[in-house]
Amino acid sequence: xMYAVSALLIILTILILIGIYLYFRNRARKxxxxxxxxxxxxxxxxxxxxxxxxxxxxWDLLKKEEVEDxxxxxxxxxxxxxxxxxxxxxxxxxxxxxxxxxxxxxxxMESKKQGR
Length: 116
Fold this sequence. Notes:
- The chain is mainly α and about 120 residues long.
- It has helices spanning about 1-35, 45-60, 65-115.
């Protein structure tokens, strides 16, 4: 029976030591969070802070910086396409003029051929 009481006292001592450790660990954690945030944040805030990047990636969402980078790149591409379109429009006018000349020559040739 003496051994049983000794074993219970040892177990009780271990449990008390674990409780004291957890108390001071939690207290230090709260102090660190209060220093970092100016207050103790909620569990939800801590969860989102820890897993926010993973959630963004897994849901295929974009951060504001990524969207701004994409917009900048798109604007550069659109500027390039606009320049290409202007060149094509200028070339189209030139080609239309040349085609008009060719058509008029063909019409002259056909009219000469029919006149014979």
